[in-house]
Design goal:
The protein is mostly helical and 137 residues long. It contains seven helices and no strands.
């Protein structure tokens, strides 16, 4: 086996007993940067319960990792609409918009997330987008 070959983690082949197991396993896969494998678990679970916020959050994260920004944006907008106090969804939506070269639209979401979470990465994203907008004007 060469040093550049990756084998799929064992967790992919574990039998799933419901969307609770799918959530747990998909989260583990996303942490390890296996978004395609995570999506293969998330999609069937969402077919059972399409309103499950946790699964929608994981699917948005997987789409972000795969740079499927339109799909990520749709899921994140749905999450923000359901819960406007979800700082992670607000930040994710801002990042997705920023990555789609829509910094003016992203800034409001990023600012809200930064104020709500007081997270350094969220504050850095606000600064980065503000600087980008200042250079463009």
């Amino acid at each position: 086996m060469s040093e550049f070959e990756f084998t799929a983690p064992r967790a992919i082949f574990m039998p799933q007993r419901g969307y609770e197991d799918a959530y747990r396993t998909a989260y583990d896969l996303l942490v390890r940067r296996f978004p395609a494998e995570a999506l293969s678990l998330i999609e069937p679970a969402l077919a059972e319960d399409s309103d499950h916020r946790g699964l929608l959050t994981l699917r948005a994260w997987a789409y972000m990792l795969r740079a499927q920004l339109g799909r990520a944006e749709a899921d994140l907008r749905a999450l923000v609409e359901r819960d406007p106090s979800d700082a992670w969804a607000l930040h994710g939506l801002g990042r997705v918009l920023e990555r789609q070269f829509r910094p003016a639209e992203a800034l409001g979401y990023l600012r809200l997330a930064a104020v709500m979470s007081d997270d350094y990465d969220h504050q850095a994203a606000v600064y980065r987008v503000e600087q980008q907008l200042a250079r463009e004007s």
